Amino acid sequence: MGAAPRPPGGWGLSSKAPPLSGSRGSDDSLFVYDCINAEKKTLGNKGQDGKQTDKGSDDILAFALSPSGDYFALTDDSKRLILFRTTPSWECVSVRSVNRRCTSLIITAADDKILVADKSGDLYSYSITEPQADGKLELGHLSLLLDVALSPDDRYILTADRDEKIRVSLAKAPYCIVSYCLGHEEFVSKILVIPNYPDLLLSASGDSTLRLWEYKSGEEVHCCHLSSICGPETTKTDQKYPVSRITYCCQGGYVAVLCDSISTVCIFQLDAIAQQLVYRQQISSKHKVWDIAFEETGDLWILQEDKEAPLQLYRPCDEQWKEVTDDKGLQKMSKYLQDNWTVFEGFVGTESHYSSLYKASFDKAATYLEKQEEKLQQQKKKRKELQRASNGQTKKMKCEEPSL
């Protein structure tokens, strides 16, 4: 589930579990699109690879708003890519089929393509100018893709996968790999090219770290361990902090990070000269936090698992974010969410999907000794069986000896 950053003149909202997306336009009307009513696949339809497509649910898996705010795209569990135009008013432009269920998508700054990452490790591009055209395979990983990013000038495509890799490719020739950003020890969950410092990449991982990169060379310039910041908030010594959302505010260079395992938002400030992240503040919630988004002004919106107060708004004041409750926009958006809360109920209390991405760990020495012991026991058992068989044969021979 997620709240998209506010486009010019309005609010964008999409739900990752329920089949609904919506936006508040400049005229204060609420646009709601229910994926249940979208064009359905039939059993006779086949994907681009010629294979039969299986029928899924209408749950939204990923979504993206274009940098201009003019387009919005989403993919759902039924392997559909749905494109919307947001100006002058919201309308559905196209519904297309994708090969496999998607994990992430992004729209180019030129508003001409949608890049869609899927579970098989492939990245496809879909035209916006030709909204009915089929997708084009751009590149592939050998592992599940978890996120995709673009440089602000659309020159570089950055892809992150389950096998700790971040790959940097040329957009015009994706087969040409510029660099790899290697250093994470678990899956890379989120990546973000800093908009006003386009040579810097921010990444987050299941290894509980935030890392800053000069991505064109693949050089890591800073590493922040979230366990040292969030650790005091939990009593679990083996607690992990997989990052589920990163949002950035150009005004002040502020970075807000949401961890999937705790109801706390951590705020950092980017020191671009020193190339490091400076910790500023934590915002804790009594409820599970679903998503976060910065406005251009620095206001921070928090979407949480609470029907009575689904949204929280924090405003910067003297480099600290303080909660605001009397904002008219907050009150209107909260009312919209409360009136449509039934579509969120299926997502309340759900377990983290990041836990299944961790690699199984084991003690190699202990496993080796266990196997050796098992092998030894099997050998002993075999020797005993051979000995019993030999003893039985000897007795039989004695019984068969002729009497004198």
From TrEMBL:
Tree of life domain: Eukaryota
GO cellular component: cytosol; nucleus; tRNA methyltransferase complex
Keywords: Acetylation, Chromosome, DNA damage, Nucleus, Repeat, tRNA processing, WD repeat
Positions annotated as WD repeat: 181-223
Annotated GO biological process: DNA damage response; tRNA (guanine-N7)-methylation
Pfam families in alphabetical order: WD40 (PF00400)
Region of interest (Disordered), residue spans: 1-25, 376-404
Pathway: tRNA modification; N(7)-methylguanine-tRNA biosynthesis
Subcellular location: Nucleus
PANTHER family in UniProt: TRNA (GUANINE-N(7)-)-METHYLTRANSFERASE NON-CATALYTIC SUBUNIT WDR4 (PTHR16288:SF0), WD40 REPEAT PROTEIN 4 (PTHR16288)
Entry similarity comment: Belongs to the WD repeat TRM82 family.
Role description: Required for the formation of N(7)-methylguanine at position 46 (m7G46) in tRNA. In the complex, it is required to stabilize and induce conformational changes of the catalytic subunit.
Protein's recorded name: WD repeat domain 4
